[in-house]
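User: Sequence in, structure out. Go.
Assistant: Echoing your sequence, followed by the structure tokens.
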Amino acid sequence: MATTPKSLKPDLSSLRITDAKRSNPGAGRRWLWIILAVILIALVAAVASAYHNRKAEVEVTSARKPASGPAGVLNASGYITPRRRATIAAKITGRVTGVFFDEGTRLSENQLLATLDDSDTLRALDSAKADRDALQAAITDFQVQLRNAEIELHRTQQLVKEGVQTQQALDAAATSADSLRAKIELAKQQVLASEARIREQQQAVDNCTIRAPFAGIAVSKDAQVGEMVSPISAGGGFTRTGIATIVDLHSNEIEVDVSESYIAKVRANQPVKAVLDAYPDWEIPAKVRTVIPTADRQKATVKVRISFTDKDHVRLIDPAADPRILPDMGVKVTFLEENDASKKKEEKSPAVALVPQSAVRQENSSTFVYVVKGDTLERRGVTLGAVRGGDVEILAGLQPEQVVVVNGPEILRDGQSVQIKK
């Protein structure tokens, strides 16, 4: 008997869907890192492009036309300083009862500035005068008594000669007269002492009046009516120590600090050119008055005092004659080379412009400056001349009033766009 074969059934257990992520788990992370790297490179490229296109900041100045006359050997900065400046204070402590000036008031010598309360000192003065008057009255009384005692003495002497009075009575009369003479001398000395006290009290009264010690101009008003003033600081800020500050404009001069490394270039009577910061187009002739013979060890500088002169740097002039010269104004000075007395005319400098030494750059054997035109740099080769203090002469390649770079990045290039630092 034939066997019936079993029906064929498909085996589906071998058919499976493979999970790609499970089969290769590192592929997804690689793609993530690739995407992050692309983003990072794009950011770096954007930052580099922005930095490359950023305008460099530079400091600029204008080339100056060389001034005629002696060349400058040193530049310095300083201030207008009066030789005579005084802060006026009271000699005593007191309350201000009157102020008779204001800032800018021109004062004459001994002019009244202020008064203090003198009521107490006036009473003390009156008391001293009363003591003197009482002593003088006592002297008058003693003198009257002395005349009577002398009469009694003379009478007693006659009576003793006649044998009527005893020697004891004569001695008593002489003693009385001598005592009155001594009292008169004592009273006179007391009058002198009283007059000394009067002068002392009068001085105290005078101390309540504050006057200008010299002619000048008041530059500050430091006390008002009703305030207490004292010659010493009382602390707490309620007591003033000064009434006014006065300067003598006729004594104005220039004071500058010169580095001790360059002080050898400065000599007495050396011509100087001064320019006030407030009036940069006004050149004031001056000359060195003195070099203070000591150095400041903290700043390594030496003070130099400079007086104003006429245009030939010979005759001193009165600085008070020009109202533009004021105390504590900033000033820049250039110490000049002294003229050769045998030369009638000064030789003309071949320089066409002056620029700060920081504006000049060197590359290999060439010297050049960067000229700013609009917001673009132009490299300009120049020929250098002599050094004048902190400046250098330009003999060729640059004209006055052209704007040059004095400070900026070390690496600059021709045609580069820049931004002027303000």
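User: And one key feature?
Assistant: Helices lie at 20-23, 26-53, 119-161, 167-206.
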